[in-house]
Amino acid sequence: MSVHHSAAAGYAVGAGNYVRGRPGYPPEAAAWLRADLGLAAGRAVLEVGAGTGKFIPLLRETGAEVLALEPVAAMRARLAADHPGVTVLDGSATAIPLPDGAVDVVVCAQAFHWFATAAALAEMRRVLKPGGMLGLIWNVRDEQVDWVAALTALTDPWEQGTPRYRSGAWRDVFPAPGFAAAGERSVHHAHVGSAEEVIVDRTLSVSFIAALPEATRDEVARQVRALIADTPALAGGGEIAFPYETRMFAFRRVD
Fold first, then answer.
1. Of the candidates 219, 231, 110, the residue with the CA atom closest to the CA atom of residue 170
2. 206: helix, coil or strand?
3. Nearest Cα to 4, choosing from 92, 79, 67?
4. Cα–Cα distance for residue pair 8/6, rounded to 1 Å
5. What predicted TM-score, i.e. pTM, was given to this entire model?
6. Which of 169, 187, 193, 241 is 20 to 30 Å from the Cα of 26, by its Cα?
């Protein structure tokens, strides 16, 4: 499977913005890893599409052995530098460089929409042990908040068919052969920081924005800063909270 242009080009130049602008994950995500996916010391977990490693700290907290697969070299380099001790793999969701039954859990954090195909699911099932778990998790912006909806309206014209969670297309591969649904959770979450970090850097970390020519990216950033300046809840210069819903889905490998 080739890497989508928006991911290959955007994440190659936008790794720094990704680290600064993307939210972490709520405490409920750690509970999900342990209770729903069964992660613990003595087990092994593979994160597919690990990016710069935003989800790695939660995986390591479980005590499990962590392996991280990332096809974009710039993201992979940042991951390796920031998370020593994690086994970092070059590959894709349809070509995982591990033997059959190598891990207890496969996790895709903020990534499954990029490779939501039957072939990718079959490959992830291959590297899972019998009875192993697949976990999918996303931080999804809460567009019930007016300024968040306005931000989306500002950036969506640049989308050009880029795969995203919000399209819902990732759901089309389920139900999937060899997997049984094992529950889902949804919790409120927020990314707290300066508007520059949690809104501007967040916007510039979006794959299809990061892939734009520099002058166009600069114009998008100018428009985002204008939105911040024109929104009383954001314009004060202090910390703001970017609202999200964290959505978690679990599937079990069945034979």
1. 110
2. coil
3. 92
4. 6
5. 0.88
6. 169
The answer to whether 136 and 108 have CB atoms below 8 angstroms apart is yes
Q: Residues 6 or more apart from 170 whose CB is under 8 A from it?
A: 112, 113, 116, 136, 163
In sequence order, what are the residues at sequence separation of 6 or more whose Cβ sits closer than 8 angstroms to the Cβ of residue 37?
Answer: 45, 105, 107, 133, 135, 250
Residue 38 identity: G
Per-residue DSSP letter, 42: T
Name, in order, each residue with C-beta under 8 angstroms of 253's C-beta and a sequence gap of 6 or more. 125, 128, 129, 130, 131, 132, 133, 134, 178, 179
The answer to whether 33 touches 136, Cβ cutoff 8 Å, is no
From the centroid of its chain, how far is CA 145? 22
HEC string of 157-192?
Answer: HHCCCCCCHHHCHHHHHCCCCCEEEEEEEEEEEEEE
Query: Residue 88: helix, strand or coil by DSSP?
Result: strand
Q: Tell me the percentage of the chain whose pLDDT exceeds 70.
A: 92
Asked if residue 208 lies in contact with residue 13, where contact means CB atoms within 8 angstroms, the answer is no
Query: What totals of helices (H) and strands (E) does the chain contain, helices first?
Result: 11, 7
CA atoms within 13 A on the CB side of 184: 11
Is 90 exceeded by the pLDDT of residue 74? no
Distance CA 103, CA 47 (A): 10
